[in-house]
Automatic annotation (TrEMBL):
Molecular function in Gene Ontology: cysteine-type aminopeptidase activity; initiator methionyl aminopeptidase activity
Superkingdom, taxonomy of origin: Eukaryota
Keywords recorded for this protein, A-Z: Aminopeptidase, Hydrolase, Protease
The name this protein goes by in its record: Actin maturation protease
Biased composition (Pro residues): 49-61
Positions of region (Disordered): 1-61
C-alpha cells in the first residue's frame, strides 16, 4: 500500500523529531537530492565569460609630405598627359609626321636631303634639360650598357657642376660627357655661324650629336629672351636644301617627293653645303626634355638664340634656390657655345 506522503519513484519521507535546541543552535540538515530535480534544468545557469573585444587598431601613420623638388609636380602632370596621349612615337614615324606637317616651309626650288640618327625621348623633372639632352645623346653614341639619368645627375652634383640639375656651363657639360659616356667632347666657342657652321653640319651629316643651349619659346622653339629662358637641346639630324642631289648613295622618299635619304649601309657622296647667307636651306632636327617629339628648327634661328644668352633668369634668381653659375655668369658659361660629341675613337 502506498503511503499518502510518498510518490512513486521517491523514497518515503522520514518524519523529523522536533528538537528545540537544535532549531536554535544550527540550521536543519539539508534534504537529500531529489532525483527528479536532476532531470529538470536549473532556471539559473552560469554563462561563459564574454570574450574581451580586440584592442583598437593603431592610428594610421601620419603621411609625410615628400620633399619639394623644383618642377617635379609640373613634370609629373606633363608625363601623365603624355602617357594618356599614347606611347612615344617611333623615331622614323615621328620624323615623317614632322616633315609632312612642315613641307610648306621648304623652298620649292631646292631638293632636300635628310640625315638623321634616331634619338630616344625623355621628359625632364625640374631643371634637368641639359642632363636629359646628354642622356639622349648617349643613345646615339651607343654608350655600352647605356647610362641612367640618375648617374648623370649624381656625378654632376659630386663634381660641383649642378645643385638642382641645372647646367649653366658648356665646358662642365663637356667634362661630364667625357667622364660618364667615355666619349670625345669638342667645345665650340664663337657661335654656330662662321667657320663653326661647316664643322657642325659635317658632324651632323656623320650621324653624331650636337648639344646646344638656347632660349626656349612657349612651343619649345628657339627665341631671344637674353638667357631668361635658357634651355638645352640635342640635335642628331640635319635637313639640307641643295640644288641637286649627288647621284651616288641616295634614294628619294616614296611618300614625300623631293626628299632624299642616304641609302643605309652604302657610302654616299657628301652633298655641297649651303652657303651661310642663303636663308631657309638648313634645318636642325632636335629633341629637348619637354616633349616626346622631334622639333625642326631653322639653323639661323638656333644660331641667333644661342648667341644672345647673356643674363640669368630673374625668376630663378628669386625662387630661393641655389644654382651653380660659372664665373662670368650665363654669358661666360653658355653664350655662343655648343658641344660636339663623338665616340672616342673617331676624329674630325
Amino acid at each position: 500500500m502506498t503511503s499518502p506522503c510518498s510518490f512513486p519513484g521517491r523514497p518515503p519521507l522520514t518524519p523529523r523529531t522536533h528538537d528545540p535546541q537544535a532549531s536554535i543552535t544550527s540550521p536543519p540538515p539539508p534534504l537529500p537530492p531529489d532525483p527528479l530535480d536532476r532531470a529538470v534544468p536549473s532556471p539559473f545557469c552560469v554563462l561563459p565569460s564574454p570574450t574581451p573585444p580586440p584592442p583598437p587598431l593603431p592610428p594610421p601613420p601620419m603621411k609625410v609630405a615628400p620633399p619639394l623638388i623644383y618642377g617635379l609636380e609640373k613634370s609629373r602632370l606633363l608625363k601623365e598627359a603624355l602617357e594618356k596621349a599614347g606611347p612615344a612615337p617611333k623615331g622614323r614615324e615621328d620624323v615623317k609626321r614632322l616633315l609632312e606637317q612642315c613641307k610648306d616651309r621648304f623652298r620649292g626650288d631646292l631638293q632636300w636631303i635628310l640625315f638623321c640618327a634616331d634619338l630616344p625621348s625623355l621628359i625632364q623633372e625640374g631643371p634637368q634639360c641639359g642632363l636629359v639632352a646628354l642622356w639622349m645623346a648617349a643613345a646615339v653614341l651607343k654608350t655600352p650598357g647605356g647610362i641612367p639619368l640618375e648617374t648623370l645627375v649624381r656625378v654632376a652634383m659630386e663634381r660641383g657642376y649642378t645643385m638642382q640639375g641645372e647646367m649653366f656651363s658648356v665646358a662642365d657639360m663637356g667634362k661630364l660627357a667625357q667622364e660618364t659616356l667615355g666619349c670625345q667632347a669638342e667645345l665650340l666657342c664663337g657661335g654656330l655661324g662662321g667657320p663653326n657652321r661647316d664643322c657642325v653640319l659635317k658632324h651632323l651629316i656623320a650621324g653624331q650629336p650636337l648639344l646646344v643651349p638656347y632660349d626656349e619659346d612657349h612651343n619649345h622653339a628657339p627665341c631671344q629672351k637674353k638667357g631668361h629662358k635658357a634651355h638645352w637641346a640635342v640635335s642628331a639630324g640635319v635637313l639640307l636644301g641643295v640644288r641637286s642631289v649627288p647621284s651616288s648613295g641616295y634614294v628619294e622618299d616614296s611618300q614625300l617627293p623631293g626628299l632624299f635619304h642616304p641609302v643605309p649601309g652604302r657610302p654616299c657622296q657628301p652633298p655641297p653645303l649651303p652657303e651661310e647667307d642663303s636663308p631657309g636651306t638648313v634645318f636642325l632636327l632636335s629633341k629637348q626634355g619637354k616633349s616626346w617629339h622631334y622639333q625642326l628648327w631653322d639653323y639661323e634661328q638656333v644660331r641667333d638664340s644661342n648667341l644672345q644668352l647673356t643674363d640669368f633668369s630673374p625668376a630663378r634668381a628669386a625662387d630661393g634656390r641655389v644654382y651653380v653659375v660659372p664665373a662670368g655668369g650665363v654669358q661666360a658659361g653658355l653664350c655662343g657655345q655648343a658641344l660636339l660629341l663623338s665616340p672616342r675613337e673617331s676624329s674630325h
